[in-house]
Design brief:
about 220 residues; alpha/beta; Rossmann fold; seven-stranded mixed sheet; 6 helices; about 30% strand; globular
Length: about 220
Amino acid sequence: MLDFDTARQNMVDCQIRTSDVTNHELLEALSTVPRERFVPQEKAELAYIDEDVEIARGRYLMEPAPLAKLIQAAGVSKDDVVLDVGCGSGYTTAVLSRLASIVIAVEQDEGLAALATSTLSELDYDNAIVVQGDLRAGYPSEGPYDVIFLGGAVDEIPSGLFAQLSEGGKLLAVEGHGNAGVARLYMRNGSDFSGRSLFNCAIQPLPGFEKKPEFVF
């Protein structure tokens, strides 16, 4: 039987710290959130490998290093209200809940939403709430949000998600797929939204954010 505590610490030391992740609170969260609880039971011993782990058809638990870099780039603080779009089994939500005041997680897959809800409850992450719904729609009724985190690569970001940002709020997403993926950070200033590229980032896609084909006449 794998020693999960040792595997978790090895993940932090050998995958996370070596990827220029230095935020103390984030490192502490990654050292304590039991990643093995957020994958199918038969894959528990794969939870800490440096690869994506499939948790449902076409859905993955993100590889540790890029996930940590993305969360660090989001700059979550303890007073923030965070929207986690595409939470999957709830692992990212659990990590974010250790950094933020409240995390609202949206998941469209009924099975994954139920799994995330039960796992987060069992582990007493009581400042995290999972709702089932369309990922593109976000969850405006609990907004505005200080941070919006998209848990997979997208072709485009719906304007409705930007509208759910608070003044000075930040949206973190990976645009593009595979080696063409780039992490981008957007910020709201009044009715204006500015974005900047941070680093290349190859992660699995988030369903429903594909760019609609353009008609050519």
